[in-house]
Amino acid sequence: MRSWIPMILLISACSSGHELRWDSSFALPAGENGAAHRGLAGPVTGIIGDRLIVGGGANFPEKMPWEGGEKHYATEAYIYVIEEDGLELIRTQTLDGMASYPGNCSAEGVLFSAGGENGDGPVHSVLRISLENDSLVTEELPSLPVPLTNGGLAYVSGKLYFLGGENRERVSDKIYELDLAGEAKEWTEAAFRLPYPVSNAVVASDGGNKIYVAGGRMRNANAVSTIYDGVYEVDLQERVVHRVATLPRASAAGTGLLDREGNLLLFGGDTGETFHRVENLLLQIARTEDAGLRKELEAIKAEVQGGHPGFSGVCRKYDFKKENWVELTPVSGESPVTTTALAYKDRVIIPSGEVRAGVRTAQILVGKF
What we know:
With 369 residues, the chain is mainly beta. The protein is built from two helices and 31 strands.
């Protein structure tokens, strides 16, 4: 095994590869008053050694967004020991500078987090987060060329790659790279691009020369968002991007990673039915000048969002050698989106995330092959 391959990528599925035992009994800690944690969408998360890090992220502590609720951006970070039979919280600390909805990846014994957003909007900051005596220490790395949130981050051979993402002006199809050992100490735009602008895609690296981008979405002006069904391979050696598979169903904001055999594992996602209904209602509201009709449409929109059925719990494996999809055991418990799937030995860990429109979960989902 090549020593530079990030250990969190080396999850090993059993020979059948289909069975996952999901455990939804672990959670972010309750508050000082004993109230259950509200959960976090878009957390800064990763694994350093046998420590799980979960921090930052956002939620709606008072009201749902369609009720006028204000989004809260958290600054707490939680450190768990990953044990044979579960997780144990060992430390909580405040960590300023964390964004929500960043690209995350763990490598070189640290956690990298790039882009994301805070109360002022998308950011271009990049953090290197390490552990010293079970205390988190942050170091600022060169910033992204532009502020971007909901993008993907991968580490390959001493370089970081930031793919896609969005800001107030546009959705990005660009790939930026940062040579961590290079003299330039700045991100450069790659000469090749993604096939289309995309945010909220699953981004996973094989630790060698390949990065995979699955699904995702692109917001459109005066139209509903495009949700993608493509799986693309970014070949860093050949500097090309090409389509290698098609999702059984278009999906965005789910999680995924590569297993030891190089198969792509995908967990849950938003297939867009409710999302598109809300977008269509927003378009109608924007176009009407009738105050009564606008109020009626806003009430319908609130009802649709409040009645969100939750996100898909379907889990799949794509075998690149056989070129086929295989169904894995579906998620048990709440199926989260807008978070990051992490691998540790024979386990998949999916911390917190969003489970319905505006609703987060404190659950830390653990799946074991």
